[in-house]
Design a protein that fits this description.
The complex is a heterodimer of chains A (301) and B (338). Chain A is elongated. Chain A is 29% helix and 29% strand. In chain A, helix 1 crosses helix 2 and helix 3 packs across helix 4. Chain A has six helices and 13 strands. In chain A, a hairpin with a 2-residue loop joins strand 2 and strand 3. Chain A has a single domain, classed as 2-Layer Sandwich (Ribosomal Protein S5, domain 2). Chain A has 301 residues and is α+β, with helices and mostly antiparallel strands. The longest helix of chain A is centred in the last third of the chain and has 25 residues. With 338 residues, chain B is α+β, with helices and mostly antiparallel strands. Chain B is built from nine helices and nine strands. In chain B, the strands form two sheets. A five-stranded mixed beta sheet of chain B has the order 1-2-3-5-4. In chain B, strands 7-6-8-9 form a four-stranded antiparallel beta sheet, sandwiched between helices. The longest helix of chain B is centred in the middle third of the chain and has 31 residues. Chain B starts with 16 loop residues before the first strand and ends with a helix. In chain B, 41% of the residues are buried. The chains are: A alpha+beta (301), B alpha+beta (338). The interface between A and B is large, with 47 and 47 residues.
Chain lengths: 301, 338
């Protein structure tokens, strides 16, 4: 019986999904607008200054954060602030369920990574990353995400794991110059001193704490937080990231990033009111995720 | 010198291993393994139809091809990474070659002509040898994805330091050692599939070190086989699966309590998960154990059927809707391409 339903799922995926949606359910038993819980663990990798692993259903993303110095060029302009960079690696998982085109996967991965970087650049207080004292240096926080398992919601999981990795990261309090070349390093390269007793390390400041939920559109139904199976059958997908002020207490979130994407089997045009409905659903679900994360992550920061 | 090592082990004790299967959805088989602080996620894809264009380097164009890819994304030791991204570093290429060489002899190739089996390994953290847990995970994942095997391959490293032979050294012990030997061993056929030795062997006896190494491999293989049987038994009884944490040799008591605690945490994982935890070891266990398995894996000893044939058999017995014959052909083509 189970093998027959699996065969039906593979042969007629659209009918398979519609039979569930007609009853207001999805193949994994959720309601139409319920999102999977985000589970976040901090510091699973002991060798990294900051790391986190986030799980959204079966999607697992591990992020590791590292700091390095950035030379601002010495002129005290307006943009004397640090930078956050992000790289995402999906490995072989991206190619298994689209048409196998590697370039398209790379494009999708690059777009997810670019969006995460954009959201984080807006949500992290970049000015606080600038080092006082001798001019022209700021921190460059490099985030590297690896996707271990993919089942829809890549952007949501990547964003959650980056935020958690940043909240577990401690910026070193002091920078020492090491003069004299050894082991191939340049003589004037600064070496970061991680000694806690010299100057206390400080956490990364957040202007807004982001959380995201994607909503996919199937005909006239909206599905929050689609799995990979549902994503492949969607007419279009609206992915929105919201940011809340870190002081807590709720309040209205700010829309930090919005992407409307329509590709795959059923290309469809998306009306503005559909986008509004999606945003409302996304905001409700993201609020639940942000509240859950506030306990563990950002309040320590 | 009867001193214990840094983590309380004796000289002939391996670190306790934790193995879990079914962690990567979308892969045919997958395994997550921890050996001390070395953490490895491995996924197996296949057997898939082989690309006709590739395979110029392997000898037999009609045989089975094994593709191994190793990715070490968070390498804190590595120097400046040159642009990251596409190219594999030298260490990754070397690890992939070692993995392929160790695993390939254990796969029964006669039923898998013209197919390609891909193994993708991500090393999350490494302390001591990375290839060891990767090879053990690969055997575990291949067995759980029903690729026909001759036997399980296990891997062990022995390092010789000042007269003592230490089994399964950590990275600091490796750096302090004078000679290192590693071997991958298939216990069911009593064959060594891969061996690597380096260092100054004038003082230490090569044969003794090799024997110690193989003893470690044998013990690990026993434990691995035991945990596979457990998995098969539980899979057949259709319960939720949990791979038992396995030991090569009696471990230190603290790691036992960690593993036991992690398994009990399964039910209230979602509450505990959000609070920040100190111990990375426990978190990884509870994260990985939350994965629900969609299809129970049955561990049968006989050879596997490729995924396609079981579905086509079911297709014949299924009642197909009234569609034209050409539509059915198109559907079948689409199915067999997956």
């Amino acid at each position: 019986m189970e093998k027959e339903s699996q065969a039906f799922e593979k042969l007629y995926p659209q009918e398979f999904l519609q039979r569930f949606l007609a009853k207001g359910l999805r193949p994994d038993g959720r309601g139409l607008t319920s999102a999977r819980d985000v589970t976040v663990h901090v510091s699973p990798i002991s060798g990294s200054p900051g790391s986190a692993i986030a799980k959204v259903g079966n999607t697992t993303v591990v992020t590791s954060a590292e700091v390095s110095l950035l030379d601002l060029g010495g002129d005290e302009g307006d943009d004397d602030e640090g930078r956050v960079s992000h790289a995402l690696d999906v490995g072989p998982l991206g190619a298994t369920h689209n048409d196998g085109s590697v370039a398209k996967t790379r494009q999708q991965v690059a777009s997810v990574s670019g969006r995460v970087q954009g959201v984080l650049s807006r949500c992290v207080d970049l000015r606080s990353l600038k080092l006082e004292g001798e001019g022209g240096k700021a921190w460059l926080v490099g985030l590297k995400s690896v996707c271990l398992s993919l089942d829809g919601g890549l952007f949501d999981a990547a964003l959650a794991s980056c935020v958690a990795a940043l909240s577990s990261l401690r910026l070193p309090g002091e920078v020492r110059e090491v003069v004299g070349g050894g082991e191939g390093r340049e003589s004037s390269e600064a070496v970061v001193a991680m000694e806690e007793d010299r100057a206390p390390s400080r956490p990364v400041d957040f202007l807004l704490i982001p959380a995201a939920t994607a909503v996919s559109i199937h005909g006239d139904r909206l599905l929050a937080d689609p799995t990979a199976f549902e994503e492949a059958l969607a007419g279009a997908e609206v992915s929105a990231a919201w940011g809340w002020a870190p002081s807590g207490g709720g309040g209205d979130p700010e829309l930090v990033s919005l992407e409307v994407r329509s590709e795959g089997h059923g290309r469809a045009t998306v009306d503005a009111d559909v986008v509004h409905r999606c945003l409302a659903v996304s905001r409700r679900r993201s609020e639940a995720r942000w509240k859950g994360r506030c306990l563990g992550g950002a309040e320590r920061a | 010198m009867d001193r214990c090592r840094g983590d309380g082990r004796g000289p002939a004790e391996c670190r306790p291993c934790f193995l879990r299967t079914g962690v990567v959805s979308g892969a045919t088989g997958s395994a997550y393994g921890e050996c001390g602080k070395t953490r490895v996620v491995l996924s197996v894809f296949g057997p898939r139809p082989r690309d006709k264009n590739t395979g110029s380097d392997s000898g037999d164009p009609h045989g089975m091809q094994l593709d191994c890819h190793v990715h070490v994304p968070f390498d804190s030791r590595g120097g400046e990474d040159d642009g990251g991204g596409e190219g594999m570093t030298e260490a990754e290429t070397r690890l992939a070659r070692q993995l392929e060489q160790s695993i390939l002899p254990s796969i029964r190739q006669e039923g898998l002509a013209k197919t390609c089996v891909e193994i993708h390994c991500t090393v999350l953290e490494s302390d001591g040898s990375e290839v060891g847990p990767a090879i053990v995970c690969a055997s575990f994942a291949l067995a759980s994805s029903r690729v026909p095997l001759y036997g399980l391959v296990t891997y062990c490293t022995a390092s010789a330091t000042g007269g003592r032979v230490l089994l399964d050294p950590t990275r600091s012990e490796l750096e302090a050692s004078e000679a290192v030997i590693s071997a991958a061993y298939m216990a069911s056929r009593d064959q060594v599939t891969f061996i690597e030795a380096a260092g100054d062997w004038s003082v230490h006896s090569f044969k003794d070190c090799l024997d110690t190494c193989l003893d470690g491999c044998k013990a690990m293989c026993e434990a691995l086989r035991g945990s596979l049987f457990e998995l098969g038994r539980k899979g057949e009884s259709r319960k939720a699966e949990q791979a038992e944490p396995m030991d090569a040799v009696p471990s230190s008591p603290e790691s036992w309590s960690e593993e036991g605690g992690a398994e009990e945490e399964l039910s209230d994982c979602s509450d505990a998960a959000l609070a920040p935890q100190e111990e990375g070891f426990e978190e990884f266990h509870s994260v990985m154990e939350e994965e629900p398995r969609h299809d129970p894996v049955t561990m049968e000893g006989r050879s596997s059927e490729p995924e396609e044939s079981s579905v086509t058999k079911k297709l014949e017995s299924m009642v197909v809707a009234n569609e034209g014959a050409e539509d059915l052909d198109a559907e079948l083509d689409a199915l067999l391409d997956m």
